[in-house]
Amino acid sequence: MFTSQGPTLRELATQALSSVEQGYDLLAPKFDATPFRTPEPWLHAVTKALRPLGPFDDGLDLCTGTGAGLRTLLPLCRRRVTGVDFSAGMLEVARTVAARTHPVTGPPAVDWVRADAMALPFREGYDLAVSFGAFGHFLPDDRPRLFARVRQSLRPGGVLAFPLAAPLSASTSAWWAASGFDAAMRLRNALRRPPFVMYYRTWPYSAVRGDLLRAGFAERLVPLDDFGHRPDGTPRAALLVARKL
């Protein structure tokens, strides 16, 4: 939920009418007081699921925002973790928060890079890449290029991992809320430029899996048991683990 320290309705409207980069620059000072920040239970669950796949030397938090994903990487990586984002405002907040809450006196070292995820400047520099809640900013046609850039950033055998929630049922209020949001964003982008790309229902597992395979990854799903199971016994959430071939 939004708190009194979070953005006002007017500030959110201004963000939504901006470009993605400018919108997040505007939102950055109050981002951690919104429901958009990745909740701690997700970070802890991903850390727990990734630990048996390590050890890792160098980790990359893709679209790091204010740096929440570093909470996953710091316990897993022995040498270095990097947060990358194209919003200068979000990176500035990330640096400040990290210096205050996670002072690093030894390995892993922490660094920050401003870059577009579609044009990552790294080449075989990381063993592990994670991302949380950012893929709604990429259209389906962007996935092949995005996965190719991530693959280029990973060493042979490196891992890309990100959590996925189970598909929503059309009988739930959450499904209607997500569908309504996506419809509103499509209308907004049809009427105003530059577009603000953010959709909730454009990354179905079947399509994502196919794009990962074509990009040169082998993938599997690891249940995140912390979130329980649905009535049919399937997990409510899973970690998609894609390993560079």
TrEMBL record:
Listed EC numbers: 2.1.-.-
CDD domains per UniProt: AdoMet_MTases (cd02440)
Segments crossing the lipid bilayer: none
This protein's UniProt keywords: Methyltransferase, Transferase
Protein source organism: Streptomyces evansiae
A single GO molecular function term of this UniProt record: methyltransferase activity
Enzyme class: transferase
Single biological process term from Gene Ontology: methylation
Name of this protein: Class I SAM-dependent methyltransferase
One family name in Pfam for this protein: Methyltransf_25
Domain Methyltransferase: from-to ranges: 60-158
Signal peptide as annotated in the record: none
